[in-house]
Amino acid sequence: MSAPVATQTLIEVRDLNVHFAINASFKARVTGRGGATVKAVDGVSFDLHEGEVLGLVGESGSGKTTLGRALLGLVRPTSGSVKLRGEELVGLPERDLRPKRRHLQMVFQDPHASLNPGMTLQTALAHPLQIHKLTSGDAETQAKVRETLELVGLFPTQRFSDSFPSDLSGGQKQRAAIARAIITGPDLVVADEPVSMLDMSVRAKILDLMIDLKERIGLTYVYVTHDLASAKFFCDRVAIMYLGRIVEIGTVDEIFNEPKHPYTQALIRAIPEPDPDKALPRDLPRGEIPDAARPPLGCSFHPRCPKAFNICGWEARDLQTMLESRWMDLGEDRYGEERPLVGDFSKLKSTEHDAFLPAGSGKDPGELLALLEKIRAEEPDEPMWTGVKEMHAEAHGVRVTFEPGIDPPLYETGGAKAACLLYKPD
Ligand SMILES: Nc1ncnc2c1ncn2[C@@H]1O[C@H](COP(=O)(O)OP(=O)(O)OP(=O)(O)O)[C@@H](O)[C@H]1O
Predict the structure, then answer these.
(1) Taking the model in full, what pTM does it have?
(2) Which residues are in the ABC transporter domain (predicted)?
(3) Nearest CA to ligand 1 atom 5
(4) Could you give the CA distance from residue 204 to residue 199 in angstroms, rounded to a whole number?
């Protein structure tokens, strides 16, 4: 889709944080001290314009759903600001938030779970109208329900208004869930993976319906998905999320034709190509998504990034990962030579930019230093080495000093904005 014409800002999000206490005692949760915290949404800012479709795209656990729910007040932010047409929503008591909910609606992934099996569509759709006192009297309510069923393509409306969810196909159920979301005349609909549980054959039809509704009744969408291909089809702009942050945001053209962040570039290369002749090698970033409760220093993506360089935030954990992944690929003999030189990784100590790697039991730290120098010479393309400033042997191991890392904000790139130090102005 083409970029939206400049319009008014509907939602303004500034430095939004949603942090969850995990594995914490009751006292730690109440006082906020002790225990671990997951930064599900971590300092997110963006504007959403009236009539646009913004995609929130990322791998599982990147914070898409939490961000979408926080926009609607369904999750209480830890701090930051969400304004609806200039009016602050964060911190509003529930009684003041409730009337706003008619303007802010959600469509969920599982249409089956989002409809009450014991209610006809007439009852289910009438409910929000009654709660928000949007109609006066049964006749008006019934007419509004029928009109909305027609809008979402469920006709003859008489038949569908008397149906129960179990009478409907998956696609019809999602149409009914959309009808319930739009019947209050919302401004913003957050659609969380609205087609991912549907048959392939109906996915495009539901997205087409949502586009059609946007034009006909003036909706703005936030579309939460892990599926870049559907975001390309459906969205005007896309925000790529990683460990609670937006790491790149731009128009669909910018993101798909000229992705700037190495993470976005890898995700786009990994989109399955239906035509086998054109298929590129799938190239997902190396390694696992890190533990959200212990995000990497500096740029959170740096341990997986093929383009990482000296200031990306190298630390002790990267040293361990480098050694372990090297040993996975080594033959028995060389593994047998190298492994005993390194001590217990649980004793790997680190301060912010400094790691102390213990030598193996009875081994000379000088031998360990020589091993690290040898690996560096053998694997000069391993990005971690760009961040190693100094290594020297000490009494019981080797001290490795890293370049101080920088946590990148979203930088201007001449296209999309990207949180990557490749675009840091000098
Ligand atoms: N209520 C909660 N309590 C603790 N941690 C949570 C809670 N909700 C989400 N999280 C954590 O926050 C992070 C972001 O989760 P979220 O569901 O928003 O990600 P997502 O990108 O939508 O993932 P998915 O595609 O799997 O739904 C994850 O690490 C998740 O485990």
Answers:
(1) 0.90
(2) 13-268
(3) 20
(4) 10
User: Which residues lie closer than 8 Å to 224 by C-beta, 6 or more apart?
Assistant: 55, 56, 64, 65, 68, 190, 191, 192, 193
Q: Out of 66, 288, 300, give the residue to mutate to test ligand 1, the one with the largest number of ligand atoms within 8 Å of its CB.
A: 66
Confidence of residue 36 (pLDDT cuts 50, 70, 90): confident
- How much is the average pLDDT of 185-193? 96
Structure tokens at 29: 């949760």
Calpha distance 2→25 (Å, rounded) = 50
In this prediction, residues 10-33 reach a mean pLDDT of 79
DSSP per-residue string spanning 287-343: SPPPPTTSPPSSSTTGGG-TT--TTS---HHHHHHHHHHHHHHS-HHHHHHHGGGB-
61, 79, 293, 296 from 22: Cα distances, Å: 15, 18, 8, 18
Q: What is the mean pLDDT of the chain?
A: 91
Q: What is the distance in A from the centroid of ligand 1 to the CA of 41?
A: 9
Give the separation between CA 260 and CA 248, rounded to whole angstroms: 8
> Exposed/middle/buried for 200, CB within 10 Å: 0-12, 13-18, 19+?
exposed
- The pLDDT of residue 280: 46
Structural domains in the chain plus CATH codes:
9-118+164-268 (3.40.50.300), 316-402 (no CATH)
Token match 């999000």: residue? Answer: 13
Is ligand 1 within 6 A of the CB of residue 102? no
* CB of 226 closer than 6 angstroms to any ligand 1 atom: yes
65 lines ligand 1 (CB under 6 A): yes
Burial 151-160 (b: 16+ CB within 10 A, else e): bbbbeebeeb
Mode of pairing for the β-strands spanning 79-84 and 237-242: unpaired
Q: Which residues, 6+ apart, have CB-to-CB distance to 90 below 8 Å? A: 16, 77, 79, 80, 81, 82
From the CB of 420, is ligand 1 less than 6 Å away? Answer: no
Distance of CA 48 to the CA centre of its chain: 17
- Quote the pLDDT of residue 119: 94
Supply the DSSP symbol for 127: H
- Is the confidence at residue 311, as pLDDT, over 60? yes
Give the distance (Å) from ligand 1 centre to CA of residue 72.
16
